[in-house]
Amino acid sequence: MMERKFNFSAGPGALPIDVLKEAQEEMLCYKDAAASVMEISHRSPQYSAITESADSILRELLGIDGSWSILYLQGGASLQFYQVPLNFLTGQKCADYLVTGTWAEGAFEQAEKIGDARIAASSVDKNHSYIPSLDSWKISEGSAYLHVTSNNTIYGTQLQSDPAVSVPMICDASSDFLSRPIEMEKYGLMYAGAQKNIGPAGVTVVLVKNEFLKRIPDGLPTMLDYRTHAKTLFHTPPVFAVYMVEKVLRWIKRLGGLDAMKTLNDKKAGLLYSKIDRTDFYQGVARSDSRSNMNVTYRLPSEDLENQFVKQAEAAGLLALKGHRSAGGIRASIYNACPVEAVEALVSFMSHFESKNG
Ligand SMILES: Cc1ncc(COP(=O)(O)O)c(C=O)c1O
Q1: CA nearest to 184, candidates 37, 68, 315, 105
Q2: What is the CATH number of domain 17-255?
Q3: Scanning 67, 89, 91, 106, which has the fewest C-beta atoms within 10 Å of its C-beta?
Q4: Which of the following is catalytic: 55, 96, 162, 172?
């Protein structure tokens, strides 16, 4: 079998090796099911135990009780861009959007199809290289919610803390979910596609306050009404993806929970940013007060050098460092499952590449 290399993919991203091994061991026979987890009913006791465990670890990690519903939906974070306003902007005066990147723009565009979506603040003037300061955000009178994107995967910026605003927040946390403690009481709903920090592609975790669900108007399409999924296991969920998420959640808990994740992620990001800051050869894309701990973006003196960097890094065992096609440059995605050794290897490769080309 080919050897595994250090993987900096922006998503689907690296999974913890322990989790992959556990799944490998269980692939043919899941516990006492005498069949793989992909071959049993989503209403079986074995699958019910998986979701019960996932729910209970999520509640413990995030400090949320039964006043929150936990949903495992399909359609990716992209479907949430539409489902959120469909449920919470329909029949309401307006909603506000913090536009800090391509995904946030996508969420805003979908909301405009439903109702009066307004831009609270935007970083488009500087190619989304910063997070607008909280005092510049305009929250409208009567706004149903403020939608924020906690981490801008493409340009590499991140909200540095959970903002305090006068309306409930709805957060797209796809690329930094469970990478640090979260003040859940500030949010009405949070969603995250699993494929970066908490599992494989195929499931989107949605956390929603039960109180918030009461605002949903009747008459929405059944599958798109959050209440359908909060009430009951309405249809076949993405069983294998949820199974993997449960394993990742147990792995996070074993490592010490969200405080431990933050310490680990601060350390990895610190190593990379201090390398970038020590030299003019590498130029960070994000403004230093807005830097992401998950997606570290930087440029080299020319596109030609960037291409060589990506190619030579791959040959040295460092995968998927090419920036997003719309942004260019280099992007190192260092989600929870990316080990410190991977980042150390990258930093050492950067020094080597600079010494040859600087
Ligand atoms: C912050 C953010 N939101 C939304 C998406 C879209 O997610 P999906 O592909 O699950 O629809 C991505 C994908 O990279 C993302 O990074």
Answers
A1: 68
A2: 3.40.640.10
A3: 67
A4: 172
